[in-house]
Amino acid sequence: MPNRATAAIKENERYIDYCFYLGRKLVVVLGNFDVVKEALSNNKIMDRPKNPPNDLLPNSTSLSVSNGLIWKEQRHFSVQALREHGMAKSKMEDIIQIQLNMLMEEIDSKKGNPMNLDQLLLPTVSNVILTMLIGKPLDFKDKDRVFLNKMLQTMVVFFRPTRFHAYFPSLRYWMASLKIWGYDKAEYYMNKFEKFIVAQIEHHKKTFDNQNVQNYIDSYLLTLKTKIEKVSSFSEKMLKGNFQSFFSAGSTPSRATLEWCFMSMLRYPDVQKAIHEELDTVLGRDRRPTWDDHLDLPYTMSVIYEVMRQNTIVPISMLRCTSSRTKIAGYDIPEGTIVMTNIWGVHHDPKDWDDPFSFKPERFLMDGKAVKPQAFIPFSYGKRNCPGEDMAIIMVFLFLTTLMQRYSITLPDTDFDIKQVVGVAKLVILDNVCLKIRC
């Protein structure tokens, strides 16, 4: 059925990329910064669709799939609780340093020989957010840690916004029963993940001490015990879903960014050399980097930003949905329209980026400082952007600087045929690289 939104797209490609129907759902795709900023600042485009692609955990809901007052209440509580338990604070740096020590022990044991760096980064990075959620990391060989690794590796492709079940939810279980497109594996891992989360909640119930609240689950249980309002969005179903959302979002994108950073070191040896020189000048070889050092390491920060821009780790941000008829770029958009933000398109728009397909860290440098232009939106934009943005940047900075201070990264040969996985995040699989202690 023709509509004004379709006409707008045909007449004004510079504003709205295109639209299409999936089933009966109209999907509008936005791919330049000005229109993304306008749309994602619009209170009528704050909602999630009824069946977002990350809503796969059974018997749960979450702040990332909720709307209205429920989303606002859960987001406010969760950000505050995670900050109390270290997110973007010095306590988080302590957690990261513990994981870095474990990681470097494993790397040193390889003695510069080829290794699967992906298998080491996955548990190390996700242990940081896991510590905030349950109060402790898991050993690399722990059976739960091994399961979580497999779950994260499998589920990354099912959370992406373009996945089939986001538009045809009624077919999801049918596809699982017939083992189509791996949906049976998705159901298996989500069912098992739910059991893991329930076990964690039950354990924290038994050990709960309202005078000694140590992690996100404890904070949530305390709120469940003390909340007196008759109408509240707090429930164990919400706790389970929030756990899944924060664990997934706090693990995969940060790990993916790190992997692309190391991939850039391999692709651009001069960039790796420049980072080594900056680290040596500012820190030397002995003092560990801290987040406070980021202002004195502008080139390294600019490399991180350029990696995030050029590769756009999350190419399509979480879907939005119009709660009522509204306008985008001056054109009517019907109620219930799915709004898809093409972050990759924003990050490669020649209007905002000179020579956008080239790797140029210096584009983020100004007067000796690393700066972020408005059109740099790797964590989306507006009130529903990623709440873990600060945590992710700090984690990537500390992992990258600590490892680059100690090691140089190379390939065992000149073969650059490195595997990629595109899901909710775009990953590069570094399963055959060499990290050698610098001379």
TrEMBL record:
<keyword id="KW-0408">Iron</keyword>
<comment type="function">
    <text>May be involved in the metabolism of insect hormones and in the breakdown of synthetic insecticides.</text>
</comment>
<dbReference type="InterPro" id="IPR001128">
    <property type="entry name" value="Cyt_P450"/>
</dbReference>
<keyword id="KW-0503">Monooxygenase</keyword>
<dbReference type="GO" id="GO:0020037">
    <property type="term" value="F:heme binding"/>
</dbReference>
<dbReference type="GO" id="GO:0006805">
    <property type="term" value="P:xenobiotic metabolic process"/>
</dbReference>
<dbReference type="GO" id="GO:0006082">
    <property type="term" value="P:organic acid metabolic process"/>
</dbReference>
<keyword id="KW-0472">Membrane</keyword>
<dbReference type="Pfam" id="PF00067">
    <property type="entry name" value="p450"/>
</dbReference>
<dbReference type="GO" id="GO:0005506">
    <property type="term" value="F:iron ion binding"/>
</dbReference>
<dbReference type="InterPro" id="IPR002401">
    <property type="entry name" value="Cyt_P450_E_grp-I"/>
</dbReference>
<keyword id="KW-0256">Endoplasmic reticulum</keyword>
<comment type="similarity">
    <text>Belongs to the cytochrome P450 family.</text>
</comment>
<keyword id="KW-0349">Heme</keyword>
<keyword id="KW-0492">Microsome</keyword>
<feature type="binding site" description="axial binding residue">
    <location>
        <position position="386"/>
    </location>
    <ligand>
        <name>heme</name>
    </ligand>
</feature>
<dbReference type="GO" id="GO:0016712">
    <property type="term" value="F:oxidoreductase activity, acting on paired donors, with incorporation or reduction of molecular oxygen, reduced flavin or flavoprotein as one donor, and incorporation of one atom of oxygen"/>
</dbReference>
<keyword id="KW-0479">Metal-binding</keyword>
<dbReference type="InterPro" id="IPR036396">
    <property type="entry name" value="Cyt_P450_sf"/>
</dbReference>
<protein>
    <submittedName>
        <fullName>Cytochrome P450 2J6</fullName>
    </submittedName>
</protein>
<dbReference type="InterPro" id="IPR017972">
    <property type="entry name" value="Cyt_P450_CS"/>
</dbReference>
<dbReference type="GO" id="GO:0005789">
    <property type="term" value="C:endoplasmic reticulum membrane"/>
</dbReference>
<dbReference type="InterPro" id="IPR050182">
    <property type="entry name" value="Cytochrome_P450_fam2"/>
</dbReference>
<keyword id="KW-0560">Oxidoreductase</keyword>
